[in-house]
Predict the 3D structure of the following.
Amino acid sequence: MSDLLTSVPEDKPMSLMPDEVVFRRGLAGRHLRGRVWKIFFMMAIVLALLSLVALFLNVVNSAAGLIVVQYNIDPAEVVPNGDLAAATAEQLAAGIVEYEPNRALVLIRDNLSSVPVDQFSASTMSQILGTHLYPESAADKTPRDLEPEERAAILAQNLSVDVMKQFISDDIIGLNVLETHSLFESIFDRAAIEEHFAAEFDPATTRLEFRLWLRPSFLTSGQSSDPVLAGIRTALIGTIWIVAITVLVAFPIGVGAAIYLEEYAAAFGNINTRFGRFMQWFNRFIETNVRNLAGVPSIIYGLLGLAIFVRAAAEFTSGRFVGVTDSNGRTIISASLTMALLILPVIIINAQEAIRAVQSSIREASYGLGATKWQTIWNQVLPAAMPGILTGTILGMSRAIGETAPLVIVGASTATFLDPNGPFSSFTALPIQIYQWTARPQAEFRAIAAAAIIVLLVLLLLLNATAILLRQYFRRKLQT
Amino acid sequence: MTENGAHAFELQGVNIYYGSKMAVNDVNLMIPRQKITAFIGPSGCGKSTVLRSLNRMNDLIPGARVQGGVFFGGQDLYAENVDPVEVRRRIGMVFQKPNPFPKSIYDNVAYGPRLLGVRGKAVLDEIVERSLKGAFLWDEVRGDLKKSGLALSGGQQQRLCIARTIAVEPEVILMDEPASALDPIATQAIEELMKVLVQQFTIVIVTHNMQQAQRVSDYTAFYSIRKKEEQGGVENRWGILAEYAPTERLFTNPASEETERYIRGEFG
């Protein structure tokens, strides 16, 4: 350093810069300030990670743990392993017939019979069951004469597993969860829980068992008022329907709007004319407002959806125009269209930016060969912009999966026991289901809410992963 | 317009504006058929602007406007009934930076013919081979037509762009500083290619490189800058065509002092 200074020529004008000592002192301060900011920025990341870990632990903590169950008959005697939720229709039917042979007939009468109640016991099974399935040997028998195997076969072939599970749980096993413990409590404090169980509960009718609330049967079971039996099948199917239709509607419209704004509207206004300048101003006005729309609270979109899709367009959204009679406007299609409106700005903005980022040299090359505007857009601009467009679509989809408020307003059912079977059926969705369960006072419902949250997060990750793979595929196609 | 058809382009009093700003003023120029005409001049003199007005590429720039007559084979290119798509299909263009599409070599060359509706593998194969041979690229890529155009070297990319341009059989090829991004060997290849292409095509080239203009062109147009101080200290600059002559004469015996100073390298 110091020999640098000696090399300064004599006749150089006096330096106005700080001398070496001041410079050194200042330098240390300058570096220190940089380090302080660096630590501050790092803390932001650390904080974000900690929050994520806390969220994750909290959810996992609730999704499994020891429970105290009470029952009249040990579930293991009724169905294999005592796992009611995972049992097949045949196993369930056999269990019902073994423990409640007469109630099995009541189930047939209440759910399957097509003869008046007072003639039930005098009719043959072929009269009673009509078009339902039944073993041939049972055709000419009256209900009382049915062999147990025949009763079981009729139940297994015709009744839904959800109905049979509910029946076994309520009327045979009398299953009741008395106490629920969290996962960490169950692991680290197991001795205390066991002690408490031995002191408070009767081992003849109760049992302490470890329960993983998130289990395969949780995905395949329908709704139930019993948390042990409740599953998210209905909500999962609802969510998949909604997101699928939302993307199908929002993707083409959003990309179309972006193409128009970037490729056509921008070139529309010839700034040499008054009309052209007006058009340019108008396009900027539209763009600004698309950006503003991206920030509008989702509940307002819900109100819009309620007014337009549920009420005004009920003829269409209820499916009456294609002959669906059992619904009002509160259907999957209404929810999807509302969600599509909600995510349109996100898709448009991202697609616009992706289209704008396409090199002009590619466009010029295409035009220079005599391509029309549309040929240039279709063959060059869209393929090059596709990775960016997909990124926007991923963002929109993630938002659509998690949104709850608009669904509440357009009328997601909180208790629907039927799976949605098309765009015109009523529905519930995962976030709605989670919200509903967390609102219950019992700890078991909070546990299944946590399990449903994990499913929602995994679904989100899966969708994002698919979209990222797709994006990589398009990007690689452009580069090689 | 000359009746014998010796001229491809005739520019009559052409003014080009970007918005309200004049970029080029009063260009009068006859560009001969099947010759190489070079546009030279300092940066900002409007030589590229004039070149891009010859196939209506300026239309792509919002606010760009051409006044006066740009005639191609007697037809005013800016007449109401002229479709710029047809203009560009007849008057192809090669750009400064090699800009192959992010597609295979084959698809790059077949792109133009496909736009015009040419289908059928046999025909396209024939076009691709003929065009790549025409651009002296065939021997280097014949075994690897599926390879991405972006995987080629800079000089090869530019020759691919030329092959792509001649694939649609235009009448004119406009070249906007086609070799300025290339090394000397690749530049030489492009220059040799131009001398062969001129047997079939009319070529107009913009170049910064005076030696290049001297080496390849038959005619040279020298553009220069005029300035005017407006009120408020704002300086207005626009380009003019300062001199146009056969290349040999322009470089050995320029008519104006300004041209002489430019070709001696005193400004630019």
Remarks:
- The mean pLDDT of chain B is 90.
- Chain B has ten helices and ten strands.
- Strands of chain B lie at 7-18, 21-32, 36-40, 64-72, 75-76, 91-94, 172-176, 202-206, 219-229, 235-246.
- Residues 132 and 138 of chain B are 5 Å apart (CA to CA).
